User: Fold Assembly factor cbp4 from Aspergillus melleus.
Amino acid sequence: MSAVKWLKMLGAGALICVGGPAFVQSIRPTDEELFKRYNPELQKRSMEEGDRRAQEFDDYVNRLKQWSKSDKSIWYAAQEQQEQKRNDISAQKSQAKEEAKTQREEMRKELLGEK
Assistant:
């Protein structure tokens, strides 16, 4: 091939590789512009839930950091934490059932004792 064709190809490639993303960046709306396009109800809801979502994201990132400190894979650490939560919840439920059972028994004893 001739040098002219190579220069044309390199020029076109550079234009596509640099110009394409630059064009997309220039027409992409900013976060503020998108927020202004929301209807008032969505703006209000977004403002109310923004802090909660930011806190949830921060909690998630902190959990990821904690999991990454482990020698195990992040996925195994996350799975172990979920299993631990399930075990804790089931233990709390069983404890609540036991407390309700003892409370019912005490109420029966009081009723039988009064009669």
